[in-house]
Design brief:
The protein has 325 residues and is mostly helical. Helices cover 76% and strands 3% of the residues. The protein is built from twelve helices and three strands. The protein starts with a helix and ends with a helix.
């Protein structure tokens, strides 16, 4: 009897062929304004992070491990935001919010992989600052070119198999009736809400992976900066303490913005999820942080500002020579 009821339930369940990203459809009067705002944010992210990559590659004074990781981080931010923001802009412009299951799964997979990369890369950047400040004599030996490349490559690839598996597990669920995702991109929590049947195993898996990919890196970063702060407080001069604090504070701001919003999104219970709050928090770790990254690192880093001025002067000089000819 139970077997027959199960078959009947499966027969009555509709097969979802595509989803609908509701995004910001609850703000119909602001669609045009949102398109303009997100377009400006996207341009800021692309230009700002691209400038950091160019500067760190061209300026000899910035050929250091810290700026090597910063260039990686800027490139990551460009990739990360390009997975979600163009789709948001298309949805706002066309008002056609439908997305196929394959496109949704692809977007989710890249968001998860790049998000994991950001978590691990921030750990690597914290470790780099820890070695530079707490073990300055061993810094050239520990953070040599080969080690920097290995740490960067490891950050990029360590989360790939895990997040591909997580995406496959999520989309192995059966979806029926409602196909409207109350979000602006395909993310695990809002999609789990659309699944038929029991999703407890998937929720537990999500929590375990979130602890491994989000919570553990966050704890490692806090541990690194605890040692850094302890070392800074032991410096004999106030000028030295101010200089080191200035170097590290920018990294801490990015860490708090990213991990704070991501932790709440993926580690809070399913019953506590609010669509509005999820969208707001997701904006922080997918768009706001990449936008502020170049501003934070550029405006608070004298070496980057000096390199930018040098690049602009060189460009003006080249243009002057060209016009004179």
């Amino acid at each position: 009897m139970k077997y027959q009821e199960s078959l009947k339930a499966e027969d009555n369940a509709s097969t979802v062929m595509q989803f609908v990203l509701l995004g910001f459809s609850d703000l119909p009067q602001l669609q045009g304004l949102l398109f303009v705002v997100f377009s400006i944010m996207y341009m800021i992210i692309l230009i700002g992070n691209s400038l950091i990559i160019i500067i760190t590659r061209l300026d000899v004074a910035l050929q250091k491990p810290m700026y090597f990781f910063l260039a990686n981080f800027s490139f990551l931010e460009i990739c990360y935001v390009s997975v979600t923001l163009p789709r948001i802009l298309v949805d706002l412009w066309t008002q056609d919010r439908s997305i196929s299951i394959l496109d949704c799964a692809t977007q989710m997979c890249f968001v998860l992989m790049l998000g994991a990369t950001e978590c691990f890369l921030l750990v690597v950047m914290a470790y780099d600052r820890y070695v530079a400040i707490c073990n300055p004599l061993h810094y050239p030996l520990l953070m040599n070119h080969k080690m920097c490349i290995q740490l960067a490559v490891g950050s990029w690839i360590i989360g790939i198999p895990v997040q591909i598996g997580q995406t496959c597990q999520t989309f192995s669920l059966h979806f029926c009736n409602c196909n409207q995702i109350n979000h602006f991109f395909c993310d695990i929590p809002p999609i789990l809400k659309l699944a038929c049947g029991d999703t407890s195993v998937h929720e537990v898996t999500l929590y375990v992976l979130a602890i491994f990919i989000v919570a553990v890196p966050f704890v490692l970063i806090l541990a690194s900066y605890s040692k850094i702060i302890f070392t800074i407080l032991r410096l004999p001069t106030a000028r030295g303490r101010t200089k080191v604090f200035s170097t590290c504070s920018s990294h801490l701001v990015v860490v708090l913005l990213f991990f704070g919003s991501a932790t709440i999104t993926y580690l809070q219970p399913k019953s506590s999820h609010s669509a509005g709050m999820d969208k707001l928090l997701s904006l922080f770790y997918t768009i706001v942080t990449p936008m502020f990254n170049p501003m934070i690192y550029s405006l608070r880093n004298k070496d980057v500002i000096a390199a930018l001025r040098k690049l602009l002067r060189k460009k003006q000089w080249d243009e002057c020579n060209f016009n004179c000819l």
